[in-house]
Amino acid sequence: MPLKLPKPVNCNHPAPLLDRAAGDTAVVVIDDHQTIAQLLADFVDRHEGFQCVGTSSSGTEGIRLIEDHKPDLVILDLQLGDMSGLEVLERIKNHRPEPKILIFSALVNEAIVGFTLRSKIDAFVEKGVPMEQLTNALEGIRRGEVYFSPTASKSLRQIVHRRKYANLDHNDLVALRLVAQQQPIKHIAHELGLSQSGAYKLVDRLLAKTGSANTAQLLHQAVLLGLITPE
């Protein structure tokens, strides 16, 4: 069923904190398209037992919202303007209490699903599917289940016997993005707090971890993971 664009909702704000209803699952939405973020916020608020307490169109602001609101659930896009959604995902894992994660993204492939699987997300729904699947994901999360929509499930089946990308950590993601952006090794070292020698070693490990023969192939891996957008 086609969806109408939502009217503005009170959820589009970084502050002040909203008082959550007792027993409700508090939700933060992070999507670089504010219209989609508001659509998701409205969709969440229409479901009994869920309350959107904040939306953000950037990874940096989204992380701050999570720190301030301490939500039970984060709905996260993977293609953000200031950083990759995978980088946000890695940062979220350091927060206590750690929220549940529902990935809502147009970027769905074996690389993405493999990485998010390692990160122990709770649901993966691709954009463009009937919103019934998002409902199924919310209800599954409330029951403590893991939900993957059909396209994500297909990718999941393809990686059952291949664990590629499963051992990439936050520093790997940042380094991979910077290499793909053709940043000099000195800049990569500075961003990660490493010596130049340490940065070279990290790039060498990236080549081995991703099965890449050269930096051109690392660029391809970065595109697959949504760390950069191809021109």
Radius of gyration: 18 Å
CATH C-level label of the largest domain: Alpha Beta
Provide the succession of SSEs: EHEHEHEHEHEHHHHH
Total E-strand runs: 6
CATH superfamily of the largest domain: Response regulator
Please specify the SSE layout and strand pairing.
Blueprint: E1 25-30, H1 34-45, E2 50-56, H2 59-69, E3 73-76, H3 85-92, E4 100-105, H4 110-118, E5 123-126, H5 131-142, E6 147-148, H6 150-158, H7 170-180, H8 185-192, H9 196-210, H10 215-224
Parallel strand pairs: 1-2, 1-3, 3-4, 4-5, 5-6
Helix pairs in contact: 2-3, 4-6, 7-8, 7-9, 7-10, 8-9
Give a description of the structure:
With 231 residues, this protein is of the alpha/beta class. The protein has two domains: 25-158, 3-Layer(aba) Sandwich (Rossmann fold); 170-224, Orthogonal Bundle (Arc Repressor Mutant, subunit A). The protein has ten helices and six strands, in the order E-H-E-H-E-H-E-H-E-H-E-H-H-H-H-H. The chain has helices at 34-45, 59-69, 85-92, 110-118, 131-142, 150-158, 170-180, 185-192, 196-210, 215-224, and strands spanning 25-30, 50-56, 73-76, 100-105, 123-126, 147-148. It has a six-stranded parallel β-sheet, with helices on both faces. The model is unreliable at 1-17 (pLDDT under 50).
